[in-house]
Design goal:
Blueprint (H helix, E strand, L loop, with lengths): L2 E4 L1 H10 L2 H14 L10 E9 L2 E8 L2 E8 L4 E9 H4 L3
Parallel strand pairs: 1-5
Antiparallel strand pairs: 2-3, 3-4, 4-5
């Protein structure tokens, strides 16, 4: 089991940007993260060259948005950090 922590901005951004079906998909994803940090059935990719709190970063695609989260494999922790529109998601 993994401990999942979600930044409060994620819920605020989801509320303002997502449609009802996308919010449902986000909550399904958060529940699945407790079992495995890269759950099957979701469009997830590892993001190279980026870290969140010193953790490996992954991005989930939901429509035109990306949800970025970090995984600490040794401590079984996951931190869901932010949602970004695809256009600015990978800009540094």
């Amino acid at each position: 089991m993994f401990r999942v922590e979600v930044d409060e901005r994620v819920f605020k951004e989801a509320e303002s940007w997502f449609k009802e079906a996308q919010i449902k998909k986000l909550f399904e994803f958060l529940k699945a993260l407790e079992e495995h940090p890269v759950p099957s059935g979701f469009d997830i990719r590892r993001v190279k060259g980026m870290e969140i709190k010193g953790m490996q970063v992954y991005a989930l695609r939901i429509g035109k948005y990306r949800i970025f989260y970090g995984v600490n494999w040794k401590e079984n922790k996951i931190y869901v950090a932010k949602i970004e529109p695809r256009g600015r998601a990978y800009k540094r």
